[in-house]
Amino acid sequence: MFKILTIAVLTCTSIYAQGDQIARQEQEKKKQAAAPVLSMNGAPPVDAAAAERGKKLFEPACGFCHGLDARGKSGPDLLRSTLVLHDENGGQIATVIRTGRPDRGMPPFATMTDQQISDISAFLHAGTLAISNRFGYEIKGLMTGDAKQGEAFFNVDGQCTKCHSATGDLAHVAGKYEPVELQRRLLLPAPNMIDMFMGKKVKPPPPSKVRVTLPSGEVHAGVLVHADEFTVVMQESGGVKSFDLTPGTKVDIDNPLAAHEAMLAKYTDAQMHNMLAYLETLK
Ligand code: HEC
Ligand code: HEC
Fold first, then answer.
1. Ligand 2 atom at minimum distance from 176 CA
2. Nearest to 94, CA basis, from 229, 226, 222, 238
3. Which of 31-35, 222-226, 248-252 has the lowest mean pLDDT?
4. What is the C-alpha separation between 69 and 67, in angstroms, rounded?
5. CA 3, 274, 277, 258: dihedral to nearest 10 degrees?
6. Which of 10, 53, 65 to mutate to test the pocket of ligand 1 (most atoms within 8 A of CB)?
7. pLDDT tens across 134-148, in order?
């Protein structure tokens, strides 16, 4: 049912090719940083001070191409980039930033430190969260959609019925949430960051499952705790285990929210409004 996301350990291999020494140092650093903190499935908490530092770095260095607000100019919209959505503390975007993609117009920023990249990541995540919360500030615009078109999208183009049913799990969804919260959960069914900051009890997102196949062929499977370019941490039946992603190691992550994260990057405003108008009929 869920899309299987396969991470080829490509980034890892290229880093090894650049120099064993640096790779091992980086790996040690990452291992220390890879404390088993629950991954929030695309919605990690954002440190406001880090986001502010990141903004100051981003605007002059990246804003020219990606837009001062990162919503895209000659370079792509980074707030709807799945790479950025999956980034944790800069781990996933570091390679793109440091090596660039010169053949496609993205210059390398080879001297950026881990700290600077992590701050930029915080800035981008603050923007991503603002997108998923944007309807909180546009309540009037929120209820302007066409329920009929929303229903058609639900059943056909949106492929929502792969996982949901209007008479089953979503039957009374509009009675469960205020429109703003329903819109937010539709976009990213993860805990509400504001509730988290306020220290309220929040329902955790459905966990991702992970399978690691070691070069020897040995397979480990469990619930994903943390993943970055260097390490995967999982909760196995025997306890928490950490795996180094040496070349030849294969990782399959099964994220139940992958479909929602992919949609978040693609929805038009009209589709979102129509979808919400339809969901609002499910009282
Ligand atoms: C001269 C223009 C330019 C500048 C400056 C620039 N970028 Fe880019 N960036 C691009 C282009 C073009 C792409 C798309 C490359 C491609 O098609 O793969 C890109 C891609 C990216 C991606 C990958 C997005 C994805 O979804 O694959 C990230 C992340 C990124 N840039 C971050 C940054 C950051 C952070 C900075 C500043 C430190 C920056 N860029 C500066 C032009 C630029
Ligand atoms: C591949 C599976 C999948 C697809 C496709 C999918 N969803 Fe979801 N959806 C989920 C999961 C998993 C959750 C989280 C459920 C939870 O928190 O227990 C969720 C949560 C939701 C929620 C919040 C429900 C609640 O009670 O909190 C809404 C609303 C929703 N989805 C709407 C949609 C719509 C509309 C589409 C199509 C545009 C869609 N989903 C497509 C898997 C999917």
1. 26
2. 229
3. 31-35
4. 5
5. 10
6. 65
7. 544 454 556 778 999
